[in-house]
Amino acid sequence: MVNPARNGNEPGWAGQAGFSLVEMLAALLGVVVVFGAATGFMLTAFLRQRAVLQATHLEALHSNFALTIAQAVKVADRFRLYPDRATYLSSPESLGTARGNLLVCWARVESGSTVEADFEFTGGELVGHRTAPNGIVSINVCPQARLAAGSGQVFDLSLGLVQGQWELTTSQDWVPFRVCAMPLMMR
Amino acid sequence: MKRLEQAFSLVEVLAALSVLTIGALATTSVWRLADYQAFVTRLDDRAARLLRECYERETFSPTAYKPFDRDGNPAGETLTQGYLYHPWNKASALDSSPRNYADDVPYTISLSPDRTRLVLQYVLNHSGTTEARQVTRAIDFLPGGEEW
User: Closest Cα partner for A156 from A173, A174, A179, A128?
Assistant: First the structure.
């Protein structure tokens, strides 16, 4: 950018003059400041946006999970709570408990078959299984879940409703989740 | 010919920098607006969840546990007021327990006098301005008639 032809003693060439050293330094300083600030901003914005997107994605996962629980309960013909899956598998015909970390719902579909959906809290994540009449199992996993403060189990039957509550902690915030629903047959 | 050989003057460079700065500021503004809209969307989603829970409780809970009394007033229920946003409180965040998250964006849920609408109103502070937003759900307290 510095014109080697610059010669201050030649008035005819004044229009072609490039930067003086001071001008060059000032220009470089300006460019460094602007691009440095822009780069820092873009980097910060990118990192924050990534964190926000991850948090939003996680919350959406949990929100859909809560909605799935509510829908499964509403259409259930019967449901039961168990402390955990091991208890359920050891005695699936037991009456269940008033609170626990496993909710199992059964719903009869038009074909007469039964669809089973269960939702379980297992060490930091919520896992949902839906077993279709043809035996196909679909699994839904929500990571980073934890028990609500002061609560030993996720699901309970207090207030006469099937309720579930848990918490999600993201890099941005803490999100409490509560879901409650009443089976249609009990309404 | 001489004109083509000219270098930039300082004024031209400063003008270019000004343009770049304005562009960066515009980008910042757009990014902040997008960030704000995404945040509002999350809050609206949380509001919808709370309204859904409120509807179920109001419809199917025993009378003593309903969020609203017969007159439609909040029945001392924590569900009808609280905070939608609990950002990480960095000053005291040594672990991730709830007490290290602040309470922000206060909300209140009210029942319309004709008991056909649940309204959640929250107050959002953004860029020095306060905005009151409202999320409304039409409801029908007849089983199977709700619109969620």
Answer: A179
